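Give me the fold.
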Amino acid sequence: MTETKPIAESKNFIVLDEYEKIIQPSTYQSEADMERELISDLVAQGYEYAKDINSPAKLLENLKQRLESLNEVKFTPSEWTRLLSEYLDAPNDGVNEKTRKIQDNHIYDFVFDDGHIQNIYLLDKKNIARNSVQVINQFEQTGAHANRYDITILVNGLPLVQIELKKRGVAIREAFNQIHRYAKESFNASNSLFKYLQIFVISNGTDTRYFANTTKRDKTSFDFTINWADSKNLPIRDIKDFTATFLAKNTLLSILTKYCVFDASDTL
């Protein structure tokens, strides 16, 4: 496989160099098999597979550990509870407020119990290699209904990318519809860290697309899903090829920290 890297980069776009498609055997693959293979590919690309994180309580504990590591601090139980209520998971925060913390307000001046103040970073945008990237699967969460999500990518413990899969041969629109059902039923439930999601990825193996999280009704349309492409504008559709390029750690972190932005009307 040819190594793929950006050949041009500006404030508004990334251009990939020429990409050589991964040749795959044309065999039947179930959704579970596709999920296992995707996780394996991500681990091979340097992700940590945190297979035990499957509930909101475990997600919160992992978030605490990751932010402590990134910021080189230790939170007491009372400090952690206060950081959650003041900043990370404030009671009235919705998707826009959570997104603003990622895009514009990722540093928080936190007052520790002993009175000293320290900047707490959600992301290191200057040195993106310092950010922790994990993959989890089959996370269970309940809002209006109980749901179980396919694959989630955590950055410093925060769920920023959600991937929903359908087996080859099933219309990719079914994965798209599932994302929107989860958004209504559980992603945006009270005290849900999944309000931090920035990007959704949907795939049926042979067609893979991505789109931004948004609260704008006119943009919750399948027409707003996007194919990733190389410098010749050739779509990179297969999930294996998409994983090797779009989900490469540095590329994904660049997209999340540089290219996910609010427009003038606060739409991601």
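Residues 2 and 204 are 24 Å apart (CA to CA).
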